[in-house]
Amino acid sequence: MNQTELLNALAGLTLFSDLDQPQLESVAHTLSAESFPAGQRILRQGFSGSGFFVILEGEVGVRVDGEDVARLGRGDFFGEISLLLGEPPVADVVAESPVKVLQLAGPQLRDFLLEHPPVMFRMLQSVSRRLERANRRG
Amino acid sequence: MTSTTPSPGPGWATPPHPPGTYPVLVVGSGPGGLQASYYLSRRGIDHAVISADPGPGGMFRRFPFFQRLLSWTKPHVPLAHDTKEYERYDWNSLVAFEPEHRGIMPSLMDGSTEFPSRAEMEEGIRRFAERTGLSVRYQTPWQGTSRDGEHYVLHTPAGEYRSRVIILAVGVAEPLLPETPGIEHAVHYVDTREAASYAGKRLFIIGKQNSGFELANGLLHWASPIILASPRSAHLSVNLHSLSGVRARYIQPWEDADTGGGVFILNASIERITRHSTGLSVHTRRSDTSEPFIAEVDEVIAATGFRAPLLDLESVGVITFGRSGLPIMTNAYESATAPGIYFAGTIGQGVSGLKKYGIASNSGAVHGHRYNARLLVDDVAGRYFGMERQRPELPPGEVVGRLLTSASTAPELWHQKSYLAHAVSRDPDGRIRDEGIVSLAEYVDAAGPDGAAITVETDDRGDIHPALYVRRHGRVDVDVALESSPLLDFRSPEHHARLSTLVADVLG
Amino acid sequence: MSLSRQEKLAWLEKVPLLRQCGAEVLEHIADVSGELPFADGDAIVLQGQVGNGLYIVTSGEVRIVAGGEELARLGPGEFFGELSVIDQQPRNATVYAVGPTACLALASWDLLALLEREPQLAMNLLHELADRLRRIDAQVRD
After folding, report:
1. pLDDT tens per residue, range A89-138
2. Is there a contact between B236 and B251 (Cβ–Cβ < 8 Å)?
3. pLDDT at site A65
4. What is the pLDDT of residues A16-40, one digit of tens each?
5. Residue C85, pLDDT score
6. Taking the mean position of all CA atoms in its chain, how far away is CA A125?
7. Rounded to 5 degrees, what are φ and ψ at A101?
8. How far apart are CA B223 and CA B194, in angstroms?
9. Burial of B159 (0-12, 13-18, 19+ CB in 10 A)
């Protein structure tokens, strides 16, 4: 995937959909491309040193104590709640297919969000919606 | 297709490995390919090695440009050069079981510095191949791939090579240029000329990672001004607690920029390059203000990275990712989507491991991937040749001591922190087995017998300490950090007591 | 109770949501927010209404009710109403005053404008929501 393709792919993700070209380039330079084979754990329940991930391709399963609770795919992101709260993840996230992601080191998330307010706002929206859904379930 | 006969390499009467079918094929004669070939030969697995080059060395036949490597070999540490423990201080020699083949680099370096020259590194690789009895068919470039039932077929000018198992060690050295309009007025890092030819030139370097700073550092004496530009800020390795980022040896341009001495470090995206009668104009947009900024220069060098030259591997099912086009791989460096195709050497950086705190492995460098090669060959041996791994029995009383000694001295753990680990397990009959060096990601995520694995880790504050992963009922639930120690020796009574408590229920 | 501008500022400084937001942000909030009094049992926001603002409790107490069940109680310095401002969906709970209560109300468009301009405020809000999400998820699992 060349740079233009990568930037187009990023612009198509909701999380980055409000960014202009220089900001997209900044994001592309800051996050690192990683991949995982099917069956590989990407986020590990209870482990320290976790990161933040945005899915470019493929599907992952979210599992708590071994039980499937959700599926995520292209454009979805995970790992941010643990990092914001400074706690280990409370769920495993496992690749269900070969997965391509963009990854950000945990210690860099806070500064990354502060430097890219539109991304932070999209994340706020996502967390708000999840909170509303959780309120309704509870 | 006509078959050409390459001229014989040094010391060989006729080229070895004629086209045909082999149990394993290795492509590449740099450190990655040769280390893999070494392990295959010691495992007794017959294989052929082919290479496009006329001789061994891989990327070290050309790079780095400005003389010396970034990786060190320290001749004066109080350890014999033929010991395994010495490897911790020698980042450049290929590794071997036999003491007489270890520590080749310190014996051939000129002794003036701990950083080998490019020529010394190339010679070290050549010597390793010769002394360990490896054989390579040179000047036989891999040009295409196809499948024939169970076999992969590699096409070369000499003919076709067939195997169920291919190990590609072709490096990540194919130049990558951005699609910036006018990029044809720039040259890629690989085409940098000799330093003196830049005397008095106004130079613009695209890219502020290690390559960009290496160029700026090497041309500091000659070019003026030097402008380094890319959208994001540069990061220093010392701040990242890892070897990513700009290495300490290339910090001079940074200091120069700080004092206004003729180096300028810019956070900007490059929009286009135009040529006019008196030079080049580089049109940029600053990252902080989004304002345009135009630099008038004589030369532009693009230190914009590399990709892996994987040719037509997609056609046989290999899926790649990212700008560098690295394959998606298992923890044993096999393609996740094309079974039987493995990748040795620097391509292994595509297996990221746990990457705790965002700290990357050293799989992109010799001192990392020389250890990955053994895991790769073990996987090939087990899965394709039915050869079981050795798992010697350990007396229970020795387990804790063995793990702490590894954490304190094992070069695999020190060069691949939080990536490789030393594991022990308990058989159903209660016997303790030494599993040796394993992939940490594989250990924590795959099912397996009860046991424990120890590794060395760095956290986000730069603290280096042992970390323990205990597997109970087939699952590793948590990572436990052990105490650090000022001289990084973890064999204290306190460490012993703590580790004993932690593993008591699975190994006691 | 009616707060002077000075009193408002002093009080805003201590609100956890506004931690590390500069003086300029606090002054702007002091200027654009209005203080609203409520009597015991008054509905401050209604389930089903589209969000018109964020409320910070300045005195008294409120209870959050959805589906006939009380979800939580909030006191001085705590806030509510932000979810439906952020994604413009109808409110999913009704909030009642418990005893005489006063809230500082920040209109929806003012909050959104502030979130865009003040990354630290957005970060504080994100942190608070993440915390709530983690706690609710834990409750649901148990």
Report:
1. 999 999 999 999 999 999 999 999 998 999 999 999 999 988 888 877 65
2. yes
3. 86
4. 999 988 888 889 888 999 999 999 9
5. 84
6. 14
7. -135, 165
8. 12
9. middle
CA dist., res. B238 & res. B496, Å (int): 31
Residue B371 is predicted with a pLDDT of: 98
Q: What is the pTM of this model?
A: 0.92
Cβ contact, residue pair A44, B230, below 8 Å = no
Q: How far is it between the farthest Cα atoms of chain A? A: 45
B460 shares contact with chain A (CB less than 8 Å)? yes
Chains that touch C (3 or more CB pairs under 8 A): A
Contacts of A44 in chain B (CB under 8 A): 354, 444-445
User: In the predicted model, what is the mean pLDDT of chain B?
Assistant: 94
Specify whether the CB–CB gap between A85 and A106 falls below 8 A. no
Which residue in A6, A29, A108 is closest to B358 by CB distance?
A: A108
Which residue of chain A is at minimal alpha-carbon distance from B325?
A1
Rounded mean pLDDT, B106-114: 92
Q: How many CB atoms lie within 10 A of CB B220?
A: 18
Q: Any idea what DSSP says for residue B84?
A: T
Q: List, in sequence order, every residue forming a beta bridge with B420; answer none if it has no partner.
A: B439
Q: Quote the pLDDT of residue C84.
A: 81
> Is residue A66 a contact partner of residue A99, using CB atoms and an 8 Å limit?
no
Most A-contacting residue of B356, B439, B443, B464 (CB-CB within 10 A), to test interface:
B356
Of B108, B105, B68, nearest to B89 (Cα)?
B105
Query: How far apart are alpha carbons B357 and B423 in whole angstroms?
Result: 23
Task: Please judge whether B479 and A51 are an interchain contact, meaning their C-beta atoms are less than 8 angstroms apart.
Answer: no
Whether residues B232 and A26 touch (CB distance < 8 A) is answered with yes
Q: What is the pLDDT of residue B1?
A: 36
The confidence score (pLDDT) of residue B4 equals 47
Hey, which chains touch B, using 3+ CB pairs under 8 Å? A
Q: Report chain B residues whose CB lies below 8 A from the CB of A27.
A: none
**C47 closest CA partner among C17, C91, C89:** C91
Pairing of strands B299-302, B203-206: parallel
CB C84 within 8 A of CB C139: no
Residue B445: CA atoms inside 13 Å, Cβ hemisphere, count? Answer: 22
Which residues of chain A neighbour B477 with C-beta distances below 8 Å?
45-46
Question: Given pLDDT bands bounded at 50, 70 and 90, which one contains residue B6?
Answer: low
A100 closest CB neighbour out of B269, B321, B330? B321
Position B284 confidence tier, pLDDT thresholds 50, 70, 90: very high
CA–CA dist B333, C23 (Å, integer): 54
Joined tokens for residue A26: 């900044």
Residue contact C133–A131, C-beta within 8 A? yes
Any A CB within 8 A of C114 CB: no
Nearest CB to C132; choose among A124, A125, A131: A131
